């Protein structure tokens, strides 16, 4: 399996690893990685692998479809590849990762303010969005949400995490806000992202990467609320 270093340190921009496998289509599997594998609406990380034979640009990072315990670093077309057993250095495209971390944390703030089931979402570099089941469109207001989100940003609430067992999560289903994406389970424990002291702002399962405090998110705004169905409302958030 690939040890997911980003789960314990989202700020680890560079690390060493050993090549476990190079797949037929060129994907590189390592014993550990600081590259986030695409999941839960967050895209896979980009960056580079540096080794004795050269430098391999990584276009994206995904889970191995044949073995979800392994993470595959997908090289750019024609890039040189390391050898199995070789020690390499992984370097994140840190500016992109950090913007995604800021946006992911911003969407948790949005989720804390809109008290309706989440049916989908996407986390981008410049913009993110969440879809909610909201029958009454007047229940959400673009300007009011922007004001409330920026108040939470300025309060600079801490963002931490803690772990609970699969059984604890099953006993507390109200922790799960997303209807379309299941929390990462199956290892016996589930990671909770905690915003505010003891989750006073938000507390929910999440395997993604986040900043350390809401103040790090920076200036954001709700830019649009779209009707995507009879009760589906899409709320878009962007950096400003």
Brief overview:
With 240 residues, the protein is of the alpha+beta class.
Topology:
Blueprint: E1 3-4, E2 14-22, E3 28-30, E4 32-33, E5 47-51, E6 54-64, E7 67-75, E8 87-92, H1 94-113, E9 118-123, E10 127-133, H2 142-154, E11 159-165, H3 166-171, E12 189-195, E13 202-205, E14 220-227, E15 232-239
Helix pairs in contact: 1-2
Structure write-up:
The chain is an alpha+beta fold and about 240 residues long. The chain has two domains: about 5-90, Elongation Factor Tu (Ef-tu), domain 3, CATH 2.40.30.130; about 95-240, Threonyl-trna Synthetase, Chain A, domain 2 (Threonyl-tRNA Synthetase, Chain A, domain 2, 2-Layer Sandwich). It has three helices and 15 strands. The chain has helices spanning about 95-115, 140-155, 165-170, and strands spanning about 5, 15-20, 30, 30-35, 45-50, 55-65, 65-75, 85-90, 120-125, 125-135, 160-165, 190-195, 200-205, 220-225, 230-240. Strands 2-3-7-6-5-8 form a six-stranded antiparallel beta barrel. A hairpin with a 6-residue loop joins strand 12 and strand 13 (about 200-205). Helix 1 (about 95-115) packs across helix 2. It is elongated, with a radius of gyration of 19 Å.
């Amino acid at each position: 399996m690939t040890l997911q270093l980003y789960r314990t340190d989202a700020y680890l921009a560079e690390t060493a690893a050993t090549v476990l496998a190079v797949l037929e289509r060129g994907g590189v599997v390592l014993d550990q990685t600081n590259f986030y594998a695409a999941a839960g609406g967050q895209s896979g990380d980009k960056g580079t692998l540096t080794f004795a034979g050269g430098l391999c640009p990584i276009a994206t990072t995904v889970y191995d479809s044949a073995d979800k315990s392994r993470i595959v670093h997908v090289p750019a077309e024609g890039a040189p590849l390391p050898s199995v057993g070789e020690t390499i250095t992984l370097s994140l495209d840190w500016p992109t990762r950090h913007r995604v971390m800021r946006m992911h944390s911003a969407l948790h703030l949005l989720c804390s303010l809109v008290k309706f089931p989440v049916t989908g979402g996407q986390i981008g570099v410049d913009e993110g969005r969440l879809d909610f089941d909201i029958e009454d469109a007047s229940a959400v207001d673009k300007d009011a949400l922007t004001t409330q989100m920026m108040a939470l940003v300025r309060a600079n609430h801490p963002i931490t995490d803690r772990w609970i067992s699969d059984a604890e999560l099953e006993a507390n289903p109200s922790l799960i806000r997303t209807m379309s994406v299941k929390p990462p389970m199956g290892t016996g424990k589930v990671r909770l992202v905690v915003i505010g002291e003891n989750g006073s702002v938000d507390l929910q399962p999440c395997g993604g990467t986040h900043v350390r405090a809401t103040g790090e998110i920076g200036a954001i705004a709700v830019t649009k609320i779209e009707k995507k169905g009879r009760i589906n409302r899409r709320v878009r958030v962007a950096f400003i």
